[in-house]
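Input record (Table S2, row 135):
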Amino acid sequence: MTKSEFQKEDIFPIGEENTGFAQYFTGKSYLAGLVPQPIPIANVTFEPGCRNNWHIHHGGGQILLCTAGRGYYQEWGKPARELHPGDVVNIPPEVKHWHGAAPDSWFSHIAISVPAENGSCEWLEPVTADYENLK
Ligand code: MN
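Output record (manganese (II) ion complex):
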């Protein structure tokens, strides 16, 4: 499936290739900013097999609203959780995790950054062994 074919399944714009954060992703992702302020909200789309590195939201967490395709969310030391449209993930601050597409499916989620004073994201290592056995 191409990006334009997947756009027909996604009710929000897929936007442009997410080059600004590409160094923290395996595979290609796309970013469409929806609301810049007072609460940053964006639609993030992952091509099949794409996922972000392990990372930690410091200060404020992150809320994911799954909108299209099939993907995963995993917290360090726990099994991966499969995600489908309508699923909600409430990621607390200070929890090491990743999110992204299934190996054979595009995936989109709305990402809401929980505001915090001096909030930041700490990017860590790519997801390798934990991804290998996912369907
Ligand atoms: Mn995150």
